[in-house]
Request: fold
Amino acid sequence: VQLVESGGGLVQLGGSLRLSCAASGFTFSSSAMSWARQVPGKGLEWVSGIYSDETTYYADSVRGRFLISRDNAKNTVYLQMNRLKPEDTAVYYCAIDQIGSSMTTIGWGQTFSSWGQGTQVTVSS
Reply:
């Protein structure tokens, strides 16, 4: 299994970034995928998840600003981040989420079977 994130960088308050995660080594099209983030010294925070059928879920902190999507033909999951805030500064990881069937955000981000090396996002004020 390999997950490779890209697209991070430095952006000003209110700006946008698009993260990508290229996946290989597993059946991507049937896997639930998540984005999570971590600030040094703090725990991992689940950000967003997407089922194989493209149903999406978001943490309250990013709902309305971030958009998760996937391209099963390219084995890639994306995170479009808009109206960025300094508190969005973190290392962002994509992960295979072991979420079962859920119609809410409950359960997302609880168990990851694999995750990438992360990409740094820094939002300056």
